[in-house]
Amino acid sequence: MARFARAPFPAQGRELPRMNPIRKLDPVVVDQIAAGEVVERPASVVKELVENALDAGATRIEVLLREGGARLIEVRDDGGGIPAEQLLLAVASHATSKLRRPSDFEAIASMGFRGEALASIGAVSRLRMISRPPAAPAAAAVTVRFGAVSGPAAAAGPPGTRVVVEDLFAELPARRKFLKRTSTEYAHCSAWVERLALAHPGVGLRLEHDGRRGFEVAPDDGIRERCAAVFGARLAERMVVVEETHGDLHLHAQVGPPEAARRDASRVHLFLNGRWVRDPKLLRAVREGVREFVPVGHYPTLYLALTMPPAQVDVNVHPQKLEVRFRNASFVFSAIVRTLRSGLSRSAWATRRVGAVGEGGAGLAETSLEAGVGASSALEYRPDFPSGPAVWERPAGAPLPASGAVATRATAADGAAADGAFRIGGLLSVANTFLVREVPGGMEILDQHALHERVNLEELRAEVRRGRVVAQPMLVPALVEVTREELADLVVHAQSLAVLGLELAAFGETTVAVRAVPSRLTRLQPERVVADVLELLAEHGEAGAETLQDEVLQRMACRGAVMAGDRLDTSALQDLLRRGAALPQDKTCAHGRPVRVFLTLEDLERAFHRR
Ligand code: ADP
Ligand code: MG
Predict the structure, then answer these.
(1) DSSP assignments along 520-584, one per residue
(2) Does the predicted model carry a pTM greater than 0.70?
(3) Where does 471-519+524-559 sit in CATH, by number?
(4) 27-217 is classed in which CATH architecture?
């Protein structure tokens, strides 16, 4: 850049390029340029042709491929067909039967509308289309060879349409060389057939590659069968169905269990009004919605179909129509988050069943119950005056809740069981981290940090629902140094944070005063919380108050929990288990890691080769 900035101007004796006069591009070149956007590889042709068949009302669609589609792609349908006199128009660019008036553009209900797929494909391949409307006595055909159109001519064929695309990019070596191995191209084609099959129950689809049968679904296969065909029958069986309606927006999801989560979004299928989309905003909403149920950084196996009035969404943002724009994006975002979350919290892997924490089991829970009831916070927070470390005081006789219990000694009744492990109540505590106990039908291992984190989160959320979180004012506000920008950011969000029991105020220009923290999170360190909030603001600042609040809650729930390695005494443990037993969901922590692992007797018998 600097080089240009210093160049003398006007240039003397500089050679200027000779410009040709401006001319309109040759139509074939126009179509080839358009093809660059629409036709990336064989799979894009498969997608466009199958979508055309769907728009034509087909109930059975066959896709035949040779050499990953590079040699041949053939799509046959039993749809409405094209009258002979319109065949030439069908392969012309910007010619479509799907939009009539400019106003149709406001609410697009068909898959296609740009009228350029056939023209684009014909510009970069040898395309032949044979079509016959059911009422027509015979079929007619049109051919396009790398942009050169011929026809229509009489042809033989059943009602419906057949499109044959051969030698894709054969005359465009620059594009051809970007094609990958046959198996890769075939995988891409197959992926599109699967997506379209998930999007259109009621339509049968059949794929064949080099004479071998591929993916196949029958017209009357429902979404469950289709999920089984795409994800495998065993996984599909365990998918949870969630359906909700928010205003004009209907959501239907099938979510796979945590074990089926992936680091990439390859198993996430999002549909908007029957269109498969890959939209960053929607993916973010999905991650948010499943965050507590699948491991951090993972995407679930998911089918999620959104149905909403076409007028509320713009699908014409992307030539391949993969990205979309919503009239009310934040509404859609939070509807997805809420639907996934509420559905998943009722799922088998999130709700309690036999041997839930604190329920039944070996002795401890029953005896602990009454001691802890009502004592949601038996600790009083008393920061040492004026600025020393906070200390905890236990009122005489009150049980020590887990929230405050750190490094207390096991009582004399708790016998040492092994090196490191010790017995406490009916449980064996291993490495001050895992709690092991017998439950009906087998045994259970709890992670004390994960359980405490989940307990904190659920209790905080319940308080938020009731109005606001009970805050514990600090006798002396904790002062935390921040930058001017950070301070401004915190002040802007101070009100939404106050709802969470986190009261912050500016204190000078580069200091924030933490005036109160949620009273049940007695272990929270103010500096840590401020740092967390700033980090979340930097990441998700524009995502909206609701999202931010929930993320802050999750962070606080984690920071306020006992750690792995913290030694808990009997009453702390009892308190934790009692609170765990009251949870709507206690199977995963706020980060989606398991809280409890249940080993059935069969699991144990198998481990010992008794089965
Ligand atoms: P678009 O789908 O955006 O309209 P296309 O180039 O894909 O553009 O198709 C152009 C037109 O050809 C369509 O609008 C439709 O009228 C007709 N057409 C294409 N494929 C089929 C088919 N399989 N059955 C019936 N009509 C079709
Ligand atoms: Mg089309």
Answers:
(1) T-TT--HHHHHHHHHHHHHHHGGG-HHHHHHHHHHHHHHHTSPPTTPPP-HHHHHHHHHHHHT-S
(2) no
(3) 3.30.1370.100
(4) 2-Layer Sandwich (3.30)
